[in-house]
Amino acid sequence: MEHLYLYILAAGFSLFVPFLRSAFGPIHTLIHECGHAIASLILSGKVYSISLYRTTEGVAFTASGSWISSVLVTYAGYTFTSIIAIFNFYLISVGQSILLFYMLLGLAFISLILWVRNIYGMIWLFLFIGGCLLLVYFQLRPVMEIVVYFLSCIILVHSTFASFTIFCFSLSNKHSAGDADRLQQLTYIPAFIWGLLFFFQSIGSTYIIFRFII
């Protein structure tokens, strides 16, 4: 598992290279927005669409039937990515990288069919799915494992960076703090409290991964 540290470094490097960030970052955005969508469906809400952008920002258009549902759906995005980051590294640690590859491919396919409707998001998913299917067709198992390692590290690193960014925005410009600002509107709890919670969650998931899995 020690080799994963190299992938984590590569994922961290990609944050500061615009082309790489636009190319690989949307996998984290997809997980985040699917967190909102899945929470909405579990709570008997509706999912209208998901948009993915080259800036690695995204938005899920959902509808909830109650105040508590709205709170939970809004809260779900960052929480879901933290949980998925742990889940990904756990599957890798028990030798189920190929299963994880197909799970990510399946999520991308479902999202394209059901939810993602903006041009950039659809193009990105077409390319992602097409690339994955080529690896499956040519049975390039070692490359599939490399893809899983790198994407799992992308999800972890971007989750931590995004939650830290939201926390910083919640302190200086709450109206740019995304989910934290929305949760403040719903609960009257200050946005920086939600931003801090998101950041602590991501740090907690990182600690679990480094302490107990890698």
TrEMBL record:
The keyword Manganese does not apply. The chain crosses the membrane at residues 6-24, 67-91, 98-116, 122-140, 147-172, 192-213. Keywords: Membrane, Transmembrane, Transmembrane helix. It comes from the Bacteria. The keyword Transmembrane helix applies. This is M50 family peptidase. It comes from Halalkalibacter okhensis.
